[in-house]
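To assess whether ligand presence alters the predicted conformation, the chain was also submitted together with pyridoxal-5'-phosphate. Input:
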Amino acid sequence: MREIWVTRAAMPGYEEYCAEIRSLWDSHWLTNMGEKHRRLQENLEAFLGVPHVTLFANGHLALENTLAALDLPKGGEVITSPLTFASTTHAIARNGLTPVFCDVRAEDGTLDADQLEALVTEKTVAILPVHVYGNPCDAAAIDRVARRHGLKTVYDAAHAFGVRYLGAPVARYGDASIFSFHATKVFNTVEGGASCCGDAGLVRRMDDLKNFGIRGPEEVACVGGNAKLSEFHAAMGLCNLRHFEAERAGRAGVAKRYARQLSGVPGIRLLTPRAGTEPNYAYFPVLFEGFRLTRDEVSDRLAAAGFGTRKHFFPLTSDFDCYRRLPTADPCRTPVAHRIAEHVLSLPMYGELPPEEVDALCDILLEG
Ligand SMILES: *Cc1c(COP(=O)(O)O)cnc(C)c1O
């Protein structure tokens, strides 16, 4: 029986990883910003094209600590998208801030910048857009609103590793951008994440926050926690980064093969990034709207044939029990996001997904 998962974690060769960690048996330096950590940080600054990268134990802690480092006034409102993973909204709430949900664009699922202004109040302190599925947000339009109202912008770029828009890396957007290096993401360190920004002071505060506020043997600067990335995780990142472009190329082939068979089919719509995007093919989200099968029927039928899929992102975070009583969580306020959440299904996507499996999946979808 076939067993294809919705994704499969990218891994370097076993020998390559062993060679990378060999020096740890000499140094006995296993965590606390060692050699692997420093090299991964430098390699990522170069690869992502940003002045500063600071690594974290995971993407969620990168986001939570980035918001904390910005020192936003407690009780402030943060405008964000509900079409995302729980982490985005939780990072706002766990900082004592209030999520304000904004609807998204039907074409690509990113924040609808035209609706931002109407959601700004005297309590608004920041905007937290999500490059959902790796599709870049309209940062220029978001930036205009942020500047006009003096708001901070932090991008949840968890899906957007290596994505460029009009030639520029999306990692440069806003006051900061965060990435997730979780095993299921397009680039992984097993668990891991990073925050990128251009402000050395902000990086300093994040570095404090991720290591208990410790600056020296006898100096503790602030109330920090522990969100450090270990040397073993950093070593995995050093290896996987060498193969990222091969992974991206493999995924591009898979995406093309799906698109050739599925685009133009009545009732099937592909969620694609805006023209000018250099994508990373992190996901392959498909909308089943008016197709002869509902999204849930498609998911069940594919599961019966051994294909894993994901309803990315159903339910919307604004429909979670912990948020649905917020004023902007009323489903009437985010009709486009709800429509996507009801109809979207992410199909299996990873660099080494065999072409014949892509074809078999499409045949199951398209058969009478
Ligand atoms: C994966 C993800 C995160 C959190 O990253 P972790 O590394 O799993 O903590 C945050 N936001 C989005 C949109 C994600 O998909």
